[in-house]
Design a protein that fits this description.
With 281 residues, this protein is of the alpha/beta class. It folds into two domains: 69 residues, Ubiquitin-like (UB roll), CATH 3.10.20.310; 161 residues, Rossmann fold, CATH 3.40.50. It contains eight helices and twelve strands. The strands form two sheets. A nine-stranded mixed β-sheet has the order 6-5-4-7-8-9-10-11-12. Strands 1-3-2 form a three-stranded mixed β-sheet, covered by helices on one side. A hairpin with a 4-residue loop joins strand 2 and strand 3. Helix 5 packs across helix 7. The longest helix has 29 residues. It is elongated and about 110 Å long. About 2% of the residues have low confidence.
């Protein structure tokens, strides 16, 4: 007997419709539950444990994260760390640990340290700006001109000033892309490494000409000249000269120039010149 051909069940369409309705209901229920769970982990409910911070308070960092962080479930630790480094100029590195069930972020930050003041003079000679930078040339903040002088604000009193001429203004949170600034930072770092006593005396470095960099020191009334390609030898000769106090005094007397017109030329490998410039109106 040939097999009986079964026809379609008369209620097949109803069953399919019910299955679709049931599936949609399940998906909507899951979406609602997911939304509820994620909202439970929203940024406004996240607690924060912070360490390594000096320039920013816990509240400050929490507020910054609140502008970006949707919840601690969907945002990764890497996203949070990157956002902190991009939006807080003092933060050099950040390590983030996420505790979902505790609704907690543990953040360990490494901050950048202020190293020097950067003064950028426009080529027109009329405008200038001050910035606080670290030893890598990373701009920590822009400083108001009225508070920028080391003699005005105690915070900057003992900080060296790097002076360059450029029409490009660096951005806070970014590294300065001016070659002369790198030369000035190298001079300061080399002095700290090899001639620490001299490093504490440097108050101004003018890098208009890398072949004739001009330093102003606390314990020398004139200007000191060094070359950008002979920084170590130049600093070494300056330090030796300043240590010879008796010779230093005799040489100054013999120059016969006013103190503000004196110069010490340490651009050469084996010779240091002490001279005087003619006074000009």
């Amino acid at each position: 007997m040939p097999p009986r051909q079964l026809g379609k069940h008369p209620n097949a369409k109803i069953y399919r419709f019910r299955r679709i309705v049931f599936t949609v209901a399940v998906l909507l229920t899951l979406a609602f539950i997911t939304k509820t769970v994620l909202s439970f982990f929203g940024a406004e409910y996240v607690s924060l444990e912070l360490s390594g911070n000096m320039h920013y308070t816990d509240l400050h960092i929490y507020d910054v994260l609140g502008k970006k962080l949707q919840n601690i479930v969907t945002d990764s630790e890497e996203q949070t760390a990157t956002y902190l480094k991009e939006n807080l100029s003092y933060i050099k590195d950040a390590y983030v640990t996420k505790h979902v069930m505790k609704r907690m972020l543990t953040i360990e930050v490494t901050e950048r340290n202020p190293f020097a003041l950067l003064r950028i003079d426009a080529t027109d000679g009329k405008n200038y700006s001050f910035f606080l930078v670290d030893n890598e040339g990373h701009v920590l903040k822009h400083i108001d001109k009225d508070a920028a002088s080391p003699s005005v604000t105690e915070q900057f009193r003992n900080m060296a000033v790097l002076r360059v001429i450029n029409d490009t203004s660096p951005k806070v949170g970014k590294a300065v892309k001016i070659s002369e600034v790198a030369i000035g930072l190298n001079i300061l770092k080399t002095a700290l490494l090899l001639e620490r006593s001299l490093a504490r005396q440097i108050k101004n470095i003018n890098i208009d000409d890398p072949r004739k960099i001009k330093l102003r020191l606390n314990n020398f009334p004139g200007t000191v000249w060094i070359a950008g390609d002979a920084v170590e030898s130049g600093l070494h000769h300056i330090a030796l000269f300043l240590k010879q106090k008796n010779i230093y005094g005799l040489e100054l007397t013999s120059v016969g120039a006013e103190p503000e017109h004196l110069y010490l030329d340490a651009r050469y490998e084996d010779t240091v010149y002490l001279g005087g410039l003619e006074a000009r109106e």
